[in-house]
Amino acid sequence: MMIVFWCSLLLILFTFVGYPACLIFLRKYLNKQNLQPSNYDNDISVVMIVCNEASVVEKKIDNIFSQNFDLEKIKLIIVDDASDDKTVEIINAYSDHDITLIKQAGRSGKAAGLNKAMAMVSTELVMFVDARQEITSNAISDLSSWFIGSNNTLAVSGEVKFRNSSGETSGMDAYQKYEKNIRLSESMVSGVPGVSGALYMLKASAFVAIPEDTILDDVLIPMMAAKKSGWIGVDERVIAWDVSSDDMSREKKRKTRTLNGNYQLLFRHPEWCLPGGHALWFQFLSHKVLRLMAPFIALALISSALYLGYSEHFYIFMVGVMTIFGILLYPISIIMPSINKIMLLRIGTSFVALNWFNLLGFVQYVFSEGKTSWK
Predict the structure, then answer these.
(1) Is the pLDDT of residue 248 over 70?
(2) 342-352: per-residue pLDDT in tens?
(3) Which of 39, 61, 104, 115 has the smallest number of CB atoms closer than 10 Å to its CB?
(4) Parallel, antiparallel, or unpaired for β 44-50 and 125-129?
């Protein structure tokens, strides 16, 4: 039990502290980013899958065709997944732009839409975007610059940032900054095990059609592309602006779905956790899989501490600390929301909440695996 306790503790510390620290150290010596200053001159496809996006699709199309890039070289491909609002009507009004609209008769999900859109792509590069976020005006030119003169670059992602009208940093936003630093470091060291689905560019020839029930297309597509070799990077200049993440219930739905998708990837591609199973196996194991295992490792930690606590007070103390901060902090924050005014507790609450969502993601995967609807 003592071995279980210390191994569990070390795994948790490595996952959330040790791995990010190693990346920060390595990025000083293994920076592989190779930005080309010149502009990309060829046509670029932009792919967007929509479903009942009437409230935002007009603004997003305007956003795409206001890029600091030759607009005649932008080929927008939109797949409408059986919208029953005015989405299609709004898209059809843009007759003066190069827009290909694919209308699906019935709901088949985002992954199926991506496969259909990619069958229409004839350009070297393709940029994937979501309908909701506003992207920076240099997004196309900045992302495409990474592919100039490089056969190794397979995908480059922008960053999602949140607009907060109050100007106050939320716990979730603080966690996003923590994630951003990890992804940026991975990008500099060797490559990122996944991209931001809201905004990324891919070498079209590297695309492999994905199963239609795929939940995390923004992880599976680049990981399949880079299975043997190739670089998946992050460009921190490129931003997709989203709404504030202060709403914990909204974050719960989003994060639980993401974690559900991570479980799907793990069980379908367990070889990605092993040396030789994928070029980015260590990043996938450290950044994705150990995060998924964290709540279960924590349960092993608490159980072993309870067992050992009969003979040593140190382990009883550890149980108390872990129970208060690892199990009760999130429920207490719901009952007493005033504690979230303290920045440290707000970040801690968000961290604990995400691990609660992790467990919910596992339950969702077990009981609804393969059921991926827009709702």
Answers:
(1) no
(2) 655 666 666 77
(3) 39
(4) parallel
In this prediction the pTM is 0.86
How far apart, in whole angstroms, are the C-alpha atoms of residue 76 and residue 103? Answer: 14
pLDDT digits (tens, 9 = 90+) for 177-233: 788 899 999 999 989 999 999 999 999 999 999 999 999 999 999 999 999 999 999
Residues 79, 104: contact at Cβ < 8 Å?
A: yes
The alpha carbon dihedral of 57, 103, 223, 33 has a sign of negative
Whether the CB-CB separation of 365 and 263 falls below 8 Å is answered with yes
Average pLDDT of the chain, as a whole number:
85
- In SS3 terms, the chain reads as CHHHHHHHHHHHHHHHHHHHHHHHHHHCCCCCCCCCCCCCCCCEEEEEEECCCCCCHHHHHHHHCCCCCCHHHEEEEEEECCCCCCHHHHHHCCCCCCEEEEECCCCCCHHHHHHHHHCCCCCCEEEEECCCCEECCCHHHHHHHHHCCCCCEEEEEEEEEEECCCCCCCHHHHHHHHHHHHHHHHHHHCCCCCCCCCEEEEEHHHCCCCCCCCCCHHHHHHHHHCCCCCEEEEEEEEEEEEECCCCHHHHHHHHHHHHHHHHHHHHHCHHHHCCCCCCCHHHHHHHHHHHHHHHHHHHHHHHHHHHHCCCCHHHHHHHHHHHHHHHHHHHHHHHCHHHHHCHHHHHHHHHHHHHHHHHHHHHHHHHHCCCCCCC
Tokens at residue 315, please?
A: 């382990």
Contact 173, 225 (CB under 8 A): no
pLDDT in tens, 37-51: 678 999 999 999 999
**pLDDT at residue 149 in the model:** 83
For residues 72 and 350, the model is more confident at 72
Alpha-carbon distance 134 to 198, whole Å? 9
Among the listed residues 308, 351, 119, 138, the one whose alpha carbon sits nearest the alpha carbon of residue 236: 138
Look-up: residue for tokens 């397979």? 154
